[in-house]
Design goal:
The chain is of the alpha/beta class. The chain has 21 helices and 30 strands. Bound molecules: 5'-O-[(S)-ethoxy(hydroxy)phosphoryl]adenosine (WTA). One of its GO terms (molecular function) is ATP binding.
């Protein structure tokens, strides 16, 4: 899809997109306790005060040494924040809380099975466990600052424990979403150059104990074929002391963490003072090419931004019980389950399983039992809960002061159900727009200062100055109400530093298009390109319309169409594959896959299934297409490019519009018959 076509699509979307809504105001009760009620914060973070304004976020943390330069632009557009400073993320999330709060719960781990006990891990216990794991990683696994280690773990307390143990040593963690396949993990092991893989034997989802160890075997084998040798696989156990997997441990390669830990009982590891700009973690995400990119996040800048936004947008106080339902395998979990809340000494909830297991009341029971008062989830889940248990929340006696929506645009109708039924009309809502690349929120209201507007994320965060460009590089006037590419004019501390091992791709994807001068060391010449389309209303609130590039947002999960297409092409019979987004009431978008077969091969249901299974094996079950359509040929331009716009119109049952520019216009009717039969 060219940019022009994409923009036309988003202009068209606006016609069907929801209208501007009325404001909703926070209660005086909320305002009275809010962390940020000072409207002057927007002045303090104005462009005139940039970049020094970010000292206000950095001051939320403890530093070993302060920076000499707050923003170093000498390697533009690889921005360095707080250069010269030294900090440790593990220290900031744990040690510094001990004198006053060692008995406070840091993590509530809620197993999926309701008859299993919730684990309440105090800050002291977190300290002990993180130290012992850090000792193991250092001594047994031989890991040191700057090494990368791949984690392929589901939602379990051992995941943040492992992450924080890495951070203690300055080891760069790269956590892969547990639902991804072994092969997807292998790609990330290879790209990051990890020689240690940390996993778990099994975990619960939907009432079933999922065998997870097999994925490590697949990952190590596949990575080995590409020349990346994993010499140690560290295996946590869902039930310590008992092995819950049918895949044997490989002698000399696989080790039970729980066994090894006995040797490190009582060990303490001094946190390593890391340069602020040392990478803290990699988070792989999908883009416009087949290969996922490793977004490299810094230690000081990331943590300052996660802490600042958690404090002022999430309104987290140390006494709050905060539950973010994202998976730690995504950026939301890194910033807003682990690092942000723990840096602020909150109690963070980690839930192992499916939100509607065993029934649609589960979330609200957890909220009631733990007295959760801050709740954070994605529109897909809100839509699901509204569908399967619209009246459930009223049956439970929890009270939220604050709720977040993240990951996809939220329809005003869904927003209102969230507000009235889940929030019982008492909780504020923030609709937070951001990305894996950005480390933290870009647009959102500050809940005690700016009113809510259903369907709009809100203004730029303090210090974030959005700007909308059209395809030709013209800036759309503020409040124009026209769709365009939303960009950010200035750097900010949470932004990723580069794509791991691929600076050129970083520059070309995120900066090249609107860069004013490629030799410039001035940040003003390098607006950050988000890849999203948005509209700016006269009140300065942004409505995010969705991706402009070849990325499909399925239930808030980012899938690159190219990644799905290359997975389909691993099936021998497939000659060409094209993936398009289809609108879906619950998931927002779902992928439809079109495949043209090699000559002489006949379409069949088995073949369609084989292709669908290939997507699960290569990527993970989240990549399963809604439909696999086997078609005789693709609609193509005269230069041979597949016209995904046409396929998307067919899948979405919309008018295909002008097809006369196609090389093979007659195919449109043939495909329409197959799909809309
Ligand atoms: C989309 C998730 C509308 C957007 C934090 C973005 C949103 C992509 C919102 C990033 C929102 C995220 N409203 N759309 N509040 N938040 N998005 O990297 O298209 O998994 O580019 O980061 O999700 O997804 P990612």
């Amino acid at each position: 899809m060219t940019g022009k076509e994409a923009l036309e699509t988003s202009e068209a979307q606006i016609a069907v997109h929801w209208q501007e809504e009325e404001y909703y105001y926070p209660s005086t009760k909320f305002i009275a306790q809010a962390n940020m009620t000072d409207e002057k914060i927007y002045d303090r973070f104005s462009l005139d005060n940039f970049p020094n304004c970010y000292k206000e976020y950095a001051d939320l943390l403890d530093w070993y040494e302060y920076w000499h330069t707050i923003l170093d632009t000498s390697d533009a557009p690889c921005w360095k924040w707080f250069t010269g400073a030294k900090i440790n993320a593990s220290y900031n999330c744990i040690d510094r809380h001990l004198p006053k709060n060692k008995n406070k719960t840091a993590i509530h781990f809620v197993p999926e099975l309701e008859n299993e006990k919730v684990e309440h891990i105090t800050y002291q216990e977190l300290y002990v466990r993180v130290n012992e794991v850090a000792a193991l990683l250092q001594d047994f696994a031989g890991l040191k600052a700057g090494d990368r280690v791949t984690l392929h773990m589901p939602m379990t307390a051992e995941l943040p424990i492992t992450m924080l143990a890495c951070a203690r040593l300055g080891v760069i963690h790269s956590e892969v979403f547990g639902g991804f396949s072994g092969r997807a993990a292998a790609d990330r092991v290879v790209d990051s150059g990890s020689r240690v893989l940390i996993t778990i034997d099994s975990y619960y989802r939907g009432g079933a104990l999922i065998d997870h160890k097999e994925k490590a075997d697949i990952a190590v084998e596949a990575a080995g074929k590409e020349g990346q040798i994993v010499d140690k696989v560290l295996v946590w156990q869902r039930y310590p002391g008992k092995y819950s997997s049918s895949f044997p441990m490989i002698n000399g390669r696989d080790f039970f963490v729980n066994d090894l830990l006995k040797k490190y009982y009582g060990k303490r590891i001094e946190p390593v003072p890391m340069p602020a700009e040392a990478p803290l973690f990699l988070m792989y995400t999908s883009g416009t090419t087949g290969k996922p990119k490793g977004c490299q996040h810094s230690t000081g800048g990331f943590l300052a931004y996660a802490a600042g936004t958690s404090k002022y947008v999430q309104d987290i106080h140390p006494e709050d019980v905060y539950w973010c339902m994202a998976d730690i395998g995504w950026i939301t979990g890194h910033s807003y389950i682990v690092y942000g809340p723990l840096a602020l000494c909150a109690s963070t909830v980690i839930y192992e399983g499916v939100p509607t297991y065993p029934d649609p009341g589960r979330c609200w029971r957890i909220a009631q039992d733990l007295d959760v008062n801050i709740f954070h989830t994605a529109p897909t889940l809100i839509r699901t809960l509204r569908k399967v248990g619209p009246d459930e929340p009223a049956k439970y006696n929890y009270e939220f002061k604050h709720m977040t929506s993240v990951g996809e645009p939220i329809e005003p109708e869904v927003w209102k159900w969230y507000y009235n039924v889940v929030g019982k009309g008492k909780a504020v809502i923030v609709d937070t727009w951001w990305q894996t690349e950005t480390g933290g929120f870009l647009c959102s209201t500050l809940p005690a200062i700016k009113p809510m507007k259903p369907g709009s994320a809100g203004p730029g965060m303090p210090g974030i100055h959005p700007i909308i460009y059209d395809e030709d590089g013209n800036v759309l006037p503020e409040g124009a109400g026209k769709a365009g590419n939303i960009c950010i004019q200035n750097p900010w501390p949470g932004a990723f530093q580069t794509i791991w091992g691929n600076r050129d791709r970083y520059v070309s994807t995120y900066y090249a298009k609107y860069c004013k001068n490629k030799d410039s060391k001035d940040w003003r010449d390098w607006p950050y390109i988000s890849g999203d389309a948005a509209v700016d209303a006269p009140d300065g609130y942004y409505r995010i319309l969705g991706r402009m590039d070849d990325v499909i947002n399925v239930s808030g999960h980012r899938l690159g169409t190219k990644e799905l297409e290359s997975a389909a092409l691993t099936v021998f019979e497939v000659a060409e594959a094209a993936v398009v987004p289809v609108n879906d009431d619950i998931k927002g978008k779902v992928p439809d896959l079109y495949a043209a077969l090699k000559s002489g091969i006949l379409p069949s249901d088995e073949l369609a299934k084989k292709i669908s299974n290939a997507l699960s094996a290569e990527i993970g079950s989240i990549a399963k297409p809604r439909n696999v359509w086997l078609v005789p040929d693709m609609p193509k331009t005269r230069s041979g490019k597949i016209m995904r716009r046409v396929l998307s119109a067919i899948s979405n049952k919309k008018d295909v519009d002008d097809v006369m520019t196609l090389a093979n216009p007659e195919i449109v009717e043939v495909i329409t018959k197959i799909v809309q039969k």
